Amino acid sequence: MDAHYEEAQRFYARQMQLLDSGATDEWAGTFTDDGVFEVGDTVVRGAGDIAEAARKTAAQFAAAGITRRHWIGMLAVRPHPEGLTARSYALVLEIAEGGDVVPRRSTVCADLLVGSADGWRVKHRRITRDGMDPG
């Protein structure tokens, strides 16, 4: 198996578990300082603003008693002059306290990953929500 693929798999496993556990500042730390996070028409720039947006979102779900899980699959990794491009499908699952697991979103995640002393970091992430965003 390709070493970059294995590295990317480990990166996403760590990153999504940070987010889903509520460690939003640590999750935002997996982006570069000038990182970009795009979902639909919303663009957040800079690790500090990404952390703030993630904290607000996590707090809203926690207040509603909803646990979220992000499931990454069908990962494709390619070399890029700045590092790696990674494209994957991501399912967002929501579980209300005492309730069933509900698939909430099906998305495509396209990342530009760059190397750092701590491993890979996201320089640019574009999330396209199936059925909601233009391709």
From TrEMBL:
Transmembrane segments: none annotated. SUPFAM superfamilies: NTF2-like. InterPro entries: NTF2-like_dom_sf, SnoaL-like. Pfam families: SnoaL_4. Residues 5-126 form the SnoaL-like domain. This is Nuclear transport factor 2 family protein. It comes from Nonomuraea corallina. The lineage of its organism: Bacteria, Bacillati, Actinomycetota, Actinomycetes, Streptosporangiales.
